[in-house]
Fold this sequence. Notes:
Blueprint: E1 3-7, H1 11-23, E2 27-31, H2 37-46, H3 49-52, E3 58-61, E4 72-75, H4 87-108, E5 113-116, H5 121-132, E6 139-141, H6 144-159, E7 166-171, E8 179-187, E9 190-191, H7 193-196, H8 198-209, H9 211-219, H10 226-241, E10 245-254, E11 260-271, E12 274-278, H11 285-311
Parallel strand pairs: 1-2, 1-4, 2-3, 4-5, 5-6
Antiparallel strand pairs: 7-8, 8-9, 10-11, 11-12
Helix pairs in contact: 1-10, 4-5, 6-8, 6-10
Amino acid sequence: MKRVGIIGSGNVGANTAFFIAENRTAHVTLVDIRQGLSTGKALDMMEAGPIRGYGSRLTGADDITAISGHDVVVLAAGRVRKPGENRIDLYLDNSKIVTQLCARIRELAPYAVVINVVEPVDSLTLLAQETLGFHRFKVLGVGGNLDGTRLRYLVSQAVGVSPREVSGLVIGPHRHSMLALKDTIRVSGVPAVFFLGEERLNALIEEMRGAGDTILEMAQHSTSYWAPSAATARLVHALVVDTRTVMSVSVRLEGEYGVTGLCVSVPAVIGIDGVQRIVDAGLSDSEQTAFLAATAELRAVVEQEKARLVAR
Length: 312
């Protein structure tokens, strides 16, 4: 069975480990610098194994060397966003952590596929890829996969069907400028607009764009973590089982969709080595224009983040 290392045993890291165990996908090593945290959480989850029927082994460690030789490494360390906080300030704090961790990952797990869940996802996935020096298709961010999950839930509730009946693709930056491709939003293959109408569908897309902020404002002390953990576990499953599933992930683009040198979510075939290929979603002229506007906005933010980091 493949081995997955998860760095950071907070809400996202621990729940990702739990979902992986539930899926019987891989053996998991939880790592956190807080002494005993990973070991305690891993033990707690394994003691649920006789009831839940895990086929996976979960272990905890206080030292990052425990991920040596692992097949997939999930970056889930770093602090979470505070209500109303500027994402650039979050980037400045978390970039230091990501840089340090990636230097160790490069040394300990040089053949791993790396998944970044640390916010802001697109900027830090780019930083991780540059620091690691890995092929761009082996460093992925959980962005559009999470946004698509949220959209599917909202549409299913509005239509009154199981979320399993709903599909939908969200691409672009993991920000308010993300782009939901309306033609892909379907209920058992039928365009969702036939059930909801254009105005209602647009309202749901807008609600999806603000879902993370809504949860943060409600919970106050924590950002969302169940949905990000589920999205991450789904991505891990596609990698280690080599499902060749098409999902939207943040990956460095080099000409695809007219964008170069940015990590942004686009549909991709996911298999054992990471992104097997990026899929052309056949954007309409208006969608392509919106996508390029969103990525231009992201590029400006990334440049501002890098300038602030240098000046710090």
